Amino acid sequence: MLLSLALGTIASVLPKDFKWGTATAAFQVEGAWNVSGRGQCIWDYFQSFPGRIYMNETAHVADDLYHRYPQDIQIMNTLGIPNLRVSISWTRILPTGDVNNVNQAGVDFYNQLFDALLAAGITPWVTLFHWDLPQTYNNFTNQSTWLNPDVANKFNDYADFCFNTFGNKIKHWITMNEIQTFTWIGYGVGTHAPGRCSPSWGSWCAEIGGGGNSSTEPYIAAHNALIAHALAVQTYRNKYQKAQGGKIGMTISSAYAEPWNISEPQDHNAVDVAVAFQYGWFGDPQVFGHYPKEMTDRITGGRLPAFNESMSALLKGSYDFLGLNYYTSSYVHYTGVPGDNFGNDGRFWSSATNATGHLIGPYADSTWLNVYPPGFRKILRWIKNRYNDPHIYVFENGVSCPGESQLPPALALNDTFRMNYVFDHIMEMVDAVLHDKVKVKGYFLWSLLDNFEWTDGFNVRFGITYVDYNNNLTRTIKDSGYMYQNLIQSLGETTGSSENSIGLSERFKNLRTLDE
Ligand code: PNW
Question: Is the CB–ligand 1 distance for residue 393 below 6 Å?
């Protein structure tokens, strides 16, 4: 096989039409928060309270992508990355969220951005909702934001507006980014907007006194967001898909899990329960039209809403692909204790260490992220098996390097920790495609740029491009960026037999061994 490599007759490791990209989100990169008529979103409001974001930083300017996108497109071109995932800021185009109040300057901005990308040969993939809900929807009487079922209708109107306005340019739509993250952290833990949680749930909740109910609200908010997704997919299919020829889906974050005690059968069972509580929470409704049995069996007291018949029918099949954001995995341990609160509803707890004290993988710079590449292949297999072999896009995968923000810029560029992370994860994905026959159709690295990392502010970096916040937001490509460029080129080389494909994958494995 190595001989055939040398002769230049190698196969492309992944299918020729495999989509390589990077991912971003409007609130984290755009800045220009009060420029040209943009309305406020719940993150603008949330970050205005002292003590909520690291060092009270704000995303008012962030990476200023709003003004500097030509430079960022140039970076994509330098690295030869053909796809960019961006999100639309709802309140930049509809300042109050309402379709009767259009901000033309915001629409112009996205048209210019999409045109510039397309002119550069880069395909834009668009997320409609990456957590920046209009602040006007934070003020409903009694109910806030996604707790109000009517917000699903507002989202559908907004989605309709986007399909109609940008659908001639955009052929890949992602309705929602990580419903679990924005509902669990926004309504359970309370450290993301809108900052709701039970005062009894933790010291943070008592401190912000935000009001909320961590044992019910995450489920209600997520339920309404799922309905919003289903309505938007229906709208796209009924009014636009045929003429525009695009595809639509959602992306779901999920860790994988390993048994805490390897010789305890219940801990092995807990693995499936844990994944059903994450991926299954949103995967099952899309594929089967209802929540996972693992959840309905365990979430007590009628706290998990049910879909009525028509909504269930609408949800079932509401995807052209399934999306996955994968970062980390943990050990899980069966407790048997029925939960009545969000954190323990699944009757298991999770931990970075197992029964023998072994750490599942090195800590990144984010407290929730331990590096565990095998979990990536395993969750891809889990999705394939549970959902009858769907098309899958990985819309996020990436890492923060320990201590990266404390390094002088010149040293931060040598991001070996990220290089290893990206390389090892892509190899797991290649194995999933070649050996497990999982239909992974694309991979988007999080993220193109260091950016506003929510409550961690600018203190945690996920970019393959360094952004110097002390020096006019200067961008410099990190070593991981160049490695990604090489990987894309190598894995996409020419066509040929699958046997040779595996040969190239093995060649990379050998390279990795030599490096270590
Ligand atoms: C994702 N967790 O968030 C988001 O989609 C991005 O906006 C974000 O910047 C990126 O991952 C890195 O954090 C997550 O606690 C936040 O497991 C938290 C978790 C997972 C994903």
Answer: no
- With a 6 Å cutoff on the Cβ, whether 453 touches ligand 1 is yes
**Integer CA distances (angstroms), 476 to 16, 113, 282, 411, in order:** 30, 21, 37, 12
CATH number of 2-514: 3.20.20.80
166, 121 contact by CB (below 8 A): no
Determine the distance separating the centroid of ligand 1 and the alpha carbon of 294, expressed in angstroms.
Answer: 24
Going from the Cα of 447 to the center of ligand 1, the distance in angstroms, rounded, reads 11
Q: 90 alpha carbon to ligand 1 midpoint, in Å?
A: 20
Sequence-distant (6+) residues with CB within 8 A of 241 are 248
Assess whether the C-beta atom of 368 lies below 6 angstroms from ligand 1. Answer: yes
Beta strand ranges found along 335-473 (DSSP E): 348-351, 392-396, 440-446, 465-468
Domain boundaries defined on the chain: 2-514
Report the nearest-CA residue for atom 8 of ligand 1: 453
In whole angstroms, give the CA distance from residue 97 to residue 39.
8
Element (H, E) at 331: strand 329-334
| pLDDT band, very low/low/confident/very high, at 507 (cuts 50, 70, 90) | very low
The neighbouring-strand residues paired with 332 are 259, 350
329-334 β-sheet, strand order: 256-259, 329-334, 348-351
Mean pLDDT computed over 174-185: 98
| φ, ψ at 236 (rounded to 5°) | -60, -45
Whether residue 253 has its Cβ less than 6 Å from ligand 1 = yes
Residue with tokens 């990379």: 508
Beta strands 440-446 and 83-87 are unpaired
Positions marked active-site: 178, 396
Angle made by CA atoms 486, 487, 493, in degrees to the nearest 5: 90
Instruction: Write out pLDDT tens, residues 423-477.
Output: 999 999 999 999 999 999 999 999 999 999 999 999 999 999 999 999 999 999 9
Q: Which residue matches tokens 């500097």?
A: 68
Residue 136 to residue 408: CA distance in whole angstroms: 41
CA distance 113 to 87: 11
Tokens of 315: 């949800």
Q: Please give the distance, rounded to the nearest whole angstrom, from the Cα atom of residue 256 to the centre of ligand 1.
A: 15
Are the CB atoms for 356 and 427 separated by under 8 Å? no
Indicate whether residue 330 lines ligand 1 (CB < 6 A).
no
pLDDT in tens, 233-251: 999 999 999 999 999 999 9
